[in-house]
Amino acid sequence: MAHADTLAPAPGPARTFGRPTTATIMSLVLLALMTALVIAPLILLFRTSLTPAGELPFSTDVYTLDNYREALGNPRLPILIGNTLTYAFGSVTIGVTLAFAIAWLVERTDIGFKRSIRTMMFSWMAVPPIVMAFGWILLGNPGNGIINVILRSLFGMKGAPVSIYSMWAMVLITGFAIVPTAFTMIAGLLRNMDPQLESAGSVHGARPFSVFRRVTLPLLVPGLLSVGILLFMAMVQAFDLPLVIGLTARVPVLSTQIYLLAHSDVSRPDYSLTATFGTFFLVLALILILVYFRAVRLGERFRVVTGKAFRPNLKPLGTWRRLATAGVGFYFLVMMLPFLVLLWTSFLPFYSVPSMEALTRLTLENYEAVFSETRIVRALVNTILLVLASSTIVMVLSVMIAWISVRSKTRLGRLLEVISFAPMAIPPVVLAIAILLIYLRTPLYGTIGLIILAHVTAYIAFGTRTMNAALLQIHRELENAAFVCGAGWFTMLRRVIFPLLLPHILNGWLWVAGHSARDITFPLFLITTTNVVAASELYILWNTPEIPTAAALAVVLVSGLLCLVVPVQIFAARLGTERRKP
User: Fold this and answer.
1) Where is the ABC transmembrane type-1 domain (predicted)?
2) DSSP letters along 433-470, please?
3) For 497-537, what is each residue's pLDDT tens digit?
C-alpha cells in the first residue's frame, strides 16, 4: 500500500510527487541525463563558435565574433544555402507527388496487390540511402555506368548521355528514395478521411475530378503541407547522398560543408568555423520546425475524422487498373535497379557491365573477404553492438520519460518532455559536431560507446513521441491497481506498462535499430580506427576503391536489416491485432 496515495483516481502534482518517491527521484535523474546528452553539447557548440580560430573552447578564455564575420562574408555561403534549399525543395516535391499518387491508388481505388505494395514500401525503408547512392553511381556513371553503356551501344551516342553527378540527378534519386516514408504518412491521411464529404459532392452533381479538386484535395492540403515540411526539414539536414554524389558533382550543401571543415585532408580541422556553420544550420532548422508546428496547428481546423465508423469508398479503376498496377510496379523496378547492380557487382572480381563473358568470372571471394578481413568483421560486430544497444537504451528511456511526461503533469515532467523532444530540431551534422567537441578529450572518444551515446541522443525524440502517443491510450486505473497491490514504480513499469506497450515498443525499437544501422553521419564524424561500423566501412571501401567488396558488404548489410525488420514487424503487427480482439 506504499503507493496507494500516489495514484488516486484524479491525482494532482502534489499527490503524485508529494514525497520523494521512486518516480520523483527518477524524474530528476532523467532530467540530469537528458540535459547532459542534449543541452550540454549545444552550449559547447555555441561556445566553440566564439573561440578564436585554431583554438578549442577548453584551452582559451577569449571570446570573438570573427568566425561569424568570416562565415557571413564567405562568398560560398549564399551558394551553400541555395544548393541546400534547391535540393530539399526538389526532392520533396518529387517524393510527395509520387507518394500521394501511389497512396491514393492503394487506399481509395481497387488497384491490385495492395498488401504487396504496402509490404514493399515498409521493407524498402530498411535500405540505407548510401547503398542506393552507390548503386545509382554504378548505373549512371558517365564512363562505364550501365545505363550509359546501353544507350551508347543501342543508339550510337557519344560521351555520357546520362550523368549521375549533377544537382538534378541528386534531386531525382532522393525524391525516389523518400517515397516510402511519405507513402506511410499520406496513406494514413487518405485512410482516415470520411468519404461522406465526397459523396455529398457527387450527390450534388459534381464530376469525380471536380470532387477531387474541390473536396478531397482542400481537405488534404494541411496534412500534405505538414508532411511536406517535415520531409523538407529532413532533406535540409540530409548528409548521405550529398556526400557521396554531391561532392563529386561539386554541388556542396550545408551538411557536407560542415563535414569538410571538420575533416580537412590538407589542414588542421577548423572546429571554430565548423561550429559557426553548425549554429547557422541549427537556426535554419529551428525556423523550419516552427513553420512545421504552425502547419500542424492549421491542420486542426480541417479535422474530418469523427467517432462515427466509416469505410472509405473504393473507386473502380476499370480499364485503368492494369495501367495503374504497371505504373506502381515500374516504380518498384526503378527502386530495385541500384540494389540489383550492387548484387551483380558483389559476385565479380572487378566491376563490369552485365554480359555473358562477365558471367564466367562470378566468384564468392568478396563475401569471403567480408567475413574474414579483421577490420570488416570488427565493423560488423560494432554494428551489431550499436544497433542492439542504442535501440534498447532509447526505448527503455523513452518509456520512463513518456510515463513521467504524460502522468505527472508537473513542470518537471513538461521540462523533461521538452528537452527530450529538442533533438528533433537539431540537424544530425550539428549534433555530431557538438558531441565530437564535448567528448574529444575524454576516454569515451574513439569507442563504439560514443556512437551509441550519439544515437541515443539523436533518436530519443522519436522514442518519447511514440511512447507518449501510446501511453495516452492506456487508462491509469491499471497502474493504480498495481500500486494498490503493493507494486513499486519499477515493478509497475515492468509488469503493467511494458507488456501493454509491447507492440509500440517493438515498432519503436525496430525504427531506431534500422536507422542506427543505416546512419552514416555519426559514424563518419566520430570515426577512429577502433569504432568503425558497417556504414562507415562501406564508405571507406568505396573510396579506396574496393568496389566489389563494398558491394558485398552493402548486400550483407541490407540482407541483415531485412532479416531484422520483416520478422519483428510481422510479430508486432500480429501482437497488436491480438490485443485489439475482444
Assistant:
1) 81-292, 380-566
2) HHHHHHHTTSTTTTSHHHHHHHHHHHHHHHHHHHHHHH
3) 888 888 788 878 888 888 898 888 899 889 888 899 999 99
User: Is the pLDDT reported for residue 266 higher than 80?
Assistant: no
Does residue 272 fall inside a structural domain?
Answer: yes
Specify the DSSP class assigned to residue 314: P
Task: Provide the residue type at 155 as one letter.
Answer: F
Of the CA atoms within 13 Å of residue 551, those in its CB half-sphere come to 26
pTM of the entire predicted model: 0.81
**What CATH number does residue 269 fall under?**
1.10.3720.10
DSSP string of 20-86?
A: --HHHHHHHHHHHHHIIIIIHHHHHHHHHHTSPTT--GGG-----SHHHHHHHT-THHHHHHHHHHH
Q: How far is CA 549 from CA 188, 295, 343, 350, 564, in A?
A: 40, 46, 11, 9, 23
The cell numbers describing 289, all together, are 520546425
Residues 161 and 267 placed together within one structural domain of the fold: yes
Select from 308, 343, 378 the last residue of a domain.
343
- Does residue 475 carry a pLDDT above 80? no
Residue 170 cell numbers, joined: 541528386
Range of the domain at 512: 369-577
Strands (E), 129-183: none
- What is the C-alpha to C-alpha distance for residues 18 and 1, in angstroms, rounded to an integer? 15
Q: What's the whole-number average pLDDT of the chain? A: 82
Residue 30 in any domain: the answer is no
> Ranked by mean pLDDT, which of 67-71, 346-350, 460-464, 483-487 comes out on top?
346-350
- When pLDDT is averaged across residues 273-286 and rounded to a whole number, the result is 82
Residue 55 grid coordinates: 583554438
Considering the domain architecture, whether residues 125 and 262 belong to the same structural domain is answered as yes
pLDDT higher than threshold 90 for residue 262: no
Distance CA 484, CA 152 (A): 77
At 487 the pLDDT is 79
Backbone angles phi, psi at 109, to 5 degrees: -130, 175
The helix/strand/coil state of 488 is coil
Residues 59 and 125 occupy one common structural domain: yes
Q: How confident is the model at residue 419 (pLDDT cuts 50, 70, 90)?
A: confident
Q: Tell whether omega for the bond before 545 is within 30 degrees of 0, i.e. cis.
A: yes
Residue carrying the nine cell digits 530540431: 425
Cα angle value 20/23/25 (rounded, 5°): 55
User: Over the stretch 210-228, which tens digit does the pLDDT of each residue have?
Assistant: 777 777 777 777 778 878 8
Grid coordinates in use for 427? 540537424
Q: Is pLDDT of 305 > 60?
A: no
Give yes or no: residues 459 and 320 share one domain. Answer: no
User: Residue 186: which of 150, 156, 163, 216 has the closest Cα?
Assistant: 216
Residue keyed to cell 562507415: 536
What is the C-alpha to C-alpha distance for residues 447 and 459, in angstroms, rounded to an integer? 19
321-367 confidence digits (pLDDT tens): 899 999 999 999 998 999 999 999 999 998 888 888 888 989 999 99
